[in-house]
Amino acid sequence: MLPNLDIDQLKTFLAIADVGNFTRAADEVNKTQSAVSMQMKRLEEVLGRPLFARDGRGSRFTNDGERLIEYARRIVSLSDEAVSAFTKPEITGTVRFGTPDDYADIFLPEVLARFNRTHPLVTVDVECYSSAVLSDRVQRSELDLSIVTFYGDRNGEPVRREELVWAMSARHSLHLLEELPLAVSHTGCIWRKLVVEALEGANRKYRIAYSSPNSSTLNAAVIQGLAIAAMPEICLRPGMRVLTEADGFPKLGVFDIGLIRKPGKLSSAGEALARHVQEGLGSQRLMLAAE
């Protein structure tokens, strides 16, 4: 029979992963440093693998330690979710929630499914617009909270960082054309601006072949080999390939994805959904780099 993983040990393990060392992790979990070390030794014994390696006067994660981080986050999150479902009072109400459609089918299914399991009496009204429109609607309190794309604007809660990449159908060679056909969003979209500036800076000819605020339309144009588009790396679909500097395409840079809230205090339902959204965004592996 396989041994069981201890939730408390996993929480300590994640504290080490989040703060970077045993000493600060001990403060985070309210334990002595020796207790933290003992917990990690027991965790290694259960798994039969070393999770830490000496690195000068400190320690670093081994490859197995790095692998465990994602498993630990999922186990601890599910444990907390189960306990919350039975111990917290029922929350009711309606939350008006916004997201760009680029992220809707990537983040929302898991986030809303988990939220419904723990808060089945809360109604979530979802609206999809561009980040600029969503920011205005949240500021006017027409929405309670929203996922948005940040470009230097930190008036919110950035959660993860993504790279903007060039995407093309893996079955076609549009990048070899003298004039590149592009699929872009509406005028005023920051990604469209970055694409145009990058191509003009590289002296590459282009034409706007498809223009739509709907990401599904742009994705379809890319997958069918009709155009090249810029999109977050996490939004790549099967059948797409990334064009790099080796293909003659300049880097487009990185941006943050995060959460904004309406002015004033959110309802209990809104705060609960905000926590689920933050966890859902952050668990998709590419975490926001510390600055």
List keywords for this structure.
single chain, 291 residues, D-Maltodextrin-Binding Protein, domain 2, globular, 24% strand, two-stranded antiparallel ribbon, Arc Repressor Mutant, subunit A, 3 domains, 7-stranded mixed β-sheet, alpha/beta, 42% helix, 11 strands
Describe the structure.
With 291 residues, the protein is an alpha/beta fold. It has 3 domains: 7-73, Winged helix-like DNA-binding domain superfamily/Winged helix DNA-binding domain (Arc Repressor Mutant, subunit A); 93-160 and 255-282, 3-Layer(aba) Sandwich (D-Maltodextrin-Binding Protein, domain 2); 162-254, Periplasmic binding protein-like II (D-Maltodextrin-Binding Protein, domain 2, 3-Layer(aba) Sandwich). It has 9 helices and 11 strands. It has helices at 7-19, 22-28, 33-47, 63-87, 101-118, 131-139, 190-201, 215-223, 268-282, and strands at residues 52-55, 58-61, 93-99, 122-128, 145-150, 157-169, 179-184, 205-211, 229-232, 240-243, 254-261. The strands form 3 sheets. Strands 3, 4, 5, 6, 9, 10 and 11 form a 7-stranded mixed sheet that branches. The longest helix has 25 residues, at 63-87. The two termini are 44 Å apart. The relative contact order is 0.14.
